[in-house]
Amino acid sequence: SFMTVGDQEGRYFCGDYTYLDNAPQVFFPAAGHRDYAGIAYDRGYYGYYWSSRPHSDYADFLFFSSSDVNMYYGRRAGGSSVRCVQE
Predict the structure, then answer these.
(1) CA–CA distance, 35 with 37 (Å, rounded to integer)
(2) pLDDT tier at 20 (50, 70, 90 boundaries)?
(3) Strand order in the sheet with 47-55
(4) Predicted model pTM
(5) Which one has a higher pLDDT value, 24 or 67?
(6) Residues near 69 by beta carbon (within 8 Å), at least 6 away in sequence
(7) What value does the mean pLDDT take over residues 64-82?
(8) For residue 32, what pLDDT is reported?
(9) Edge to edge, what strands does the sheet with 3-5 contain?
(10) Beta bridge pairs of residue 70
């Protein structure tokens, strides 16, 4: 389920689990997405985050809501969030 951090609704993730006490974790805000025409949708209700795997005009993305977490693929022309990761 969603938690509020600051004024942002979202979810915590840690490894293979959506939340685990005392484990390293990261908060992903439910930032919504932008469609291929540039219209923003779903802020505060859904999170869409690109993965690093493009497939031609498509790419994988993490999708989550307050009750669901899955990987999907969609057109790269749309706008999903990106979480930078230090290597």
Answers:
(1) 5
(2) low
(3) 47-55, 58-64, 69-75
(4) 0.76
(5) 67
(6) 11, 18, 62, 63
(7) 88
(8) 93
(9) 3-5, 8-13, 26-29
(10) 63
Tell me the longest C-alpha to C-alpha distance in the chain: 42
When the pLDDT of each residue in the chain is averaged and rounded to a whole number, the result is 84
Spatial contact of 28 and 10, defined as CB atoms under 8 Å apart: yes
Please, what is the end-to-end C-alpha distance for the chain in angstroms? 29
What are 3's strand-pairing partners?
10
Q: What is the pLDDT of residues 24-65, one digit of tens each?
A: 788 899 999 998 888 999 999 999 998 877 778 888 888 999
46 touches 66 (CB < 8 A): no
Q: Is 33 exposed, middle or buried (0-12, 13-18, 19+ CB in 10 A)?
A: buried
Amino acid at 68: D
Q: Pull the structure tokens for residue 10.
A: 């979202």
DSSP-assigned letter for residue 18:
S
For 25, residues 6+ apart whose C-beta sits below 8 A from its C-beta are 12, 13, 14, 19
